[in-house]
C-alpha cells in the first residue's frame, strides 16, 4: 500500500474538516462565503499551474469562467438540457476556445503574453455582453439547480459539499499531475525552453496543455457559479475579475497548489471584512475596501514576495527545525520513489561500436552579420573517447557548441550524428537521437528535488501522458524513471542527495547533477559546455575523475572548455580554436607544445 504523502494527507484532513463544518450550526453567511472561496480556488488553482508553475501570466481566466457558466446557462434554459449536459458542453467549449486562443497566445513571450490574454479576455467579455442569444448585458436568469443523485441542490448549503469535493478532487488532480512525467515537463518550462527542449520536452505542446487545463478549472468554476447564482451576466467575467483571480494566486503563493486556496480565502475574507468594517470606521459608504485591501496586499507582497503559503511553510519549518539533526532539509519523496519495488529497467538505445564516428562536424560556419564566429571548422568525436574543444575567450567555442546541439542554425556546413545529418534539427529531435548536453551556466530547477531534476532527463524514455499522471495510472513508469534517475545520481556520486533541493547544492555538485540529468537520457554522446567553469580545485579533480569513469564505461564526450589544464590530462584528442578558426588538432601533448597554440592561447596567460 502506498503511504499517504503529507500533501495528500493534507487534502484528506482539510476535506474532512470542510465537510464536517456544513453539518454544524454555522451561519448561512459563512457557508456562502465558503462557497465563493471554493469557486475562486478552482480558478486560482489553474493560475498556479499556468502562472506560478509554468511561468505564463494570464489576466484572462475570468473569460473561461464565463464560458463555463454561459454554456450551462444556455443548455439548461434554452435547450432544456440538464446541468450535467451543461457541464459537458461548458468543458468542451472551454477546451476548444482555450486550444484556439492558447495556440496563438502561448507563442508570445515577455510582456506580449499577458497583453495577449488581456486582449482575448476583453473580447470574450464584450462577446457575452453583445450576443442576443446570451441576452446581452442583462444576462440569463432562471437557471435550474444541479440535481445530484436525485437531490436538487437548491440552497448554498446544499451546493457546498459538491463545491468542496470538486475543489478537493481538483487539488488532488493537480498534485498528482505535478508529480508525474507531464508535470515535470510543465515545471521544466520555468528552467528555460532551451533546457526543457534539450531534455526532449515538447515545450509548445506542454505550454498549451497547461493553458487548457487551467482554463478547464476556470470553466468548472463557472459551471458551479451559474448553478449557485441561478443567473449569469457578463460583469463577473470581465477584466477586473481576471486581475482579481491572478492576485489571489500571487498573494496565496503562485508556485504552490495550496497557495491557490490560501489566496482565494484571504482575499475573499479580507474583502468582506473590510466591506463591513470600513463604513463603520469612516462613517460613510463607498468602495473603500478595494483601496484598503489593495494597499494591504501590496504590503503583504513586500513582506512575503513569494506569497502567503511559503510564509506558512517557513513557520511550520521553524517548528520542524527544533527537532532536526542539522542535515539538509529533505523534500517529500515523489511517487516514483515510494513505489520503487515496481521499477523495471528502462529501454536502452543501441550504443555505437567502439572507435566508430558518432559525431562528425564538416566545415561548420556561422556568421553574425559581418562577424565570422565559426569559420569552416571540422572535427569528429569517436565512440568511447573524450574530445576537447578549447580556445581563448571569444574563440567561437560556445557558438560551435550551439551549432552542434541544435540551438543555432548553421550558415553553411554539415553536422552528422550517429550516421544521420542533423543540422537544422531541433534540440528535441537531437535529444531523441541520443545527444545530451549540459550548460555553461547551470540550468536546473532549484526548488525541485535533485532526483526530480534528473528524472526530467529521462523524459523521452517514458510515454505516459497527463491523464495517466492525474489518475495515478503511471506508477510502474514513474518507479522505473526514478530508479534510473537514482542510478545516474549514484553514478555521479550524488546518490545520498536525491531528496535535497537542487538549489541547495554547491556549484560543483550542480554540475554533476546536470551530467546525471544528461546521462538519464541514455545518450550516445554527451556534450559538456565548460563544465569546470567556476569550480574549486577539488571539485575539478572530482569532475575529471567522473569523466574518466564515464569514458571507461563507453560514453562518448565532447568537452568544450576554456581551462587548458583541466583538459590536458583528461581528453584523448584536442581541437583548438581561435578567432572562429580551427588552428590545431591532435593529441594533448602535441597540441600543448604547438607554437600556434602557445601564441594564440597560452601566450596571453601568465
Ligand atoms: N548571438 C551573437 N550575435 C553576435 N555575435 C555573437 C553572438 N554570439 C557570439 N558572438 C560573437 O562570436 C564570437 C565567438 O563567441 P563565442 O561566445 O562563441 O566564443 P567562446 O569561445 O565561447 O568565448 P567564451 O570562452 O568567452 O565563452 C565572439 O566575437 C562573440 O562576440
**How many helical stretches?**
24
Q: Which stretches of 5+ consecutive residues score pLDDT under 50?
A: none
- CATH second-level architecture of the largest domain: 3-Layer(aba) Sandwich
Query: What is the strand tally?
Result: 14
Give the N-terminus to C-terminus distance in angstroms: 64 Å
What does this structure look like?
55% of the residues lie in helices and 12% in strands. The protein has 606 residues and is an alpha/beta fold. The protein folds into two domains: 26-239, no CATH class; 357-604, 3-Layer(aba) Sandwich (Rossmann fold), CATH 3.40.50.300. The strands form four sheets. It has a six-stranded mixed beta sheet with strand order 10-11-12-7-13-14, with helices on both faces. Strands 6-5-8-9 form a four-stranded antiparallel beta sheet, covered by helices on one side. Helix 4 packs antiparallel against helix 9 and helix 19 crosses helix 20. It is elongated and about 85 Å long. It starts with 5 loop residues before the first helix and ends in a 6-residue tail after the last helix. The mean pLDDT is 91. The site of adenosine-5'-triphosphate has 12 residues, from strand 6 and helix 15.
Name some characteristics of this structure.
2 domains, ABC_AA/LPS_Transport, Rossmann fold, binds adenosine-5'-triphosphate, 55% helix, alpha/beta, six-stranded mixed β-sheet, P-loop_NTPase, single chain, four-stranded antiparallel β-sheet
Amino acid at each position: 500500500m502506498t503511504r499517504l504523502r503529507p500533501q495528500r494527507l493534507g487534502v484528506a484532513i482539510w476535506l474532512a474538516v470542510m465537510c464536517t463544518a456544513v453539518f454544524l450550526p454555522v451561519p448561512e453567511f459563512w457557508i456562502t462565503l465558503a462557497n465563493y472561496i471554493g469557486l475562486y480556488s478552482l480558478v486560482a488553482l489553474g493560475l498556479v499551474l499556468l502562472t506560478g508553475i509554468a511561468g505564463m501570466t494570464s489576466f484572462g481566466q475570468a473569460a473561461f469562467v464565463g464560458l463555463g457558466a454561459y454554456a450551462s446557462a444556455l443548455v439548461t434554459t434554452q435547450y432544456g438540457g440538464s446541468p450535467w449536459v451543461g457541464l459537458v458542453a461548458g468543458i468542451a467549449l472551454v477546451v476548444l476556445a482555450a486550444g484556439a486562443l492558447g495556440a496563438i497566445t502561448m507563442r508570445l513571450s515577455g510582456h506580449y503574453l499577458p497583453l495577449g490574454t488581456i486582449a482575448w479576455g476583453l473580447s470574450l467579455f464584450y462577446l457575452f455582453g453583445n450576443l442576443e442569444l446570451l441576452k446581452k448585458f442583462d444576462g440569463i436568469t432562471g437557471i435550474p439547480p444541479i440535481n445530484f443523485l436525485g437531490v436538487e441542490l437548491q440552497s448554498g448549503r446544499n451546493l457546498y459539499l459538491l463545491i468542496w469535493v470538486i475543489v478537493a478532487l481538483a487539488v488532488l488532480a493537480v498534485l498528482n499531475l505535478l508529480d508525474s512525467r507531464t508535470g515535470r515537463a510543465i515545471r521544466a518550462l520555468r528552467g528555460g525552453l532551451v533546457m526543457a527542449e534539450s531534455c526532449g520536452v515538447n515545450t509548445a505542446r506542454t505550454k498549451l496543455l497547461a493553458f487548457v487545463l487551467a482554463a478547464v478549472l476556470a470553466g468548472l468554476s463557472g459551471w458551479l457559479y451559474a448553478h449557485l447564482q441561478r443567473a449569469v451576466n457578463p460583469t463577473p467575467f470581465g477584466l477586473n475579475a481576471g486581475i482579481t483571480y491572478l492576485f489571489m494566486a500571487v498573494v496565496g503563493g503562485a508556485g504552490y497548489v495550496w497557495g491557490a486556496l490560501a489566496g482565494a480565502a484571504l482575499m475573499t475574507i479580507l474583502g468582506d471584512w473590510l466591506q463591513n468594517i470600513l463604513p463603520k470606521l469612516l462613517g460613510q459608504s463607498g468602495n473603500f475596501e478595494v483601496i484598503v485591501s489593495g494597499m494591504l496586499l501590496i504590503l503583504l507582497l513586500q513582506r512575503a514576495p513569494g506569497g502567503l503559503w511559503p510564509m506558512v511553510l517557513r513557520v511550520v519549518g521553524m517548528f520542524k527545525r527544533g527537532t532536526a539533526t542539522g542535515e539538509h532539509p529533505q523534500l517529500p519523496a515523489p511517487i516514483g520513489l515510494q513505489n520503487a519495488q515496481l521499477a523495471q529497467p528502462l529501454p536502452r538505445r543501441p550504443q555505437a561500436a567502439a572507435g566508430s564516428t558518432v559525431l562528425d562536424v564538416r566545415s561548420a560556419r556561422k556568421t553574425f552579420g559581418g562577424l565570422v564566429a565559426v569559420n569552416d571548422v571540422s572535427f569528429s568525436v569517436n565512440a568511447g573517447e573524450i574530445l576537447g574543444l578549447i580556445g581563448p575567450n571569444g574563440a567561437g567555442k560556445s557558438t560551435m557548441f550551439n551549432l552542434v546541439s541544435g540551438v543555432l542554425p548553421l550558415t553553411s556546413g554539415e553536422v552528422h550524428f550517429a550516421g544521420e545529418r542533423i543540422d537544422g534539427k531541433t534540440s528535441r529531435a537531437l535529444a531523441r537521437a541520443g545527444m545530451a548536453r549540459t550548460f555553461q551556466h547551470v540550468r536546473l530547477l532549484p526548488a525541485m528535488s535533485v532526483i526530480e531534476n534528473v528524472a526530467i532527463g529521462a523524459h523521452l524514455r517514458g510515454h505516459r501522458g497527463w491523464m495517466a499522471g492525474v489518475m495515478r495510472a503511471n506508477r510502474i513508469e514513474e518507479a522505473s524513471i526514478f530508479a534510473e534517475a537514482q542510478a545516474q545520481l549514484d553514478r555521479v556520486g550524488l546518490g545520498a542527495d536525491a531528496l535535497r533541493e537542487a538549489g541547495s547544492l554547491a556549484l560543483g555538485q550542480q554540475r554533476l547533477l546536470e551530467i546525471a540529468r544528461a546521462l538519464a537520457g541514455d545518450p550516445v554522446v554527451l556534450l559538456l559546455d565548460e563544465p569546470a567553469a567556476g569550480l574549486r580545485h577539488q571539485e575539478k579533480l572530482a569532475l575529471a575523475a567522473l569523466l574518466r569513469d564515464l569514458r571507461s564505461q563507453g560514453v562518448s564526450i565532447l568537452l568544450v572548455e576554456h581551462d587548458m589544464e583541466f583538459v590536458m590530462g583528461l581528453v584523448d584528442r584536442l581541437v583548438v580554436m581561435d578567432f572562429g578558426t580551427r588552428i590545431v588538432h591532435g593529441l594533448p601533448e602535441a597540441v600543448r607544445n604547438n607554437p600556434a597554440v602557445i601564441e594564440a592561447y597560452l601566450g596571453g596567460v601568465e
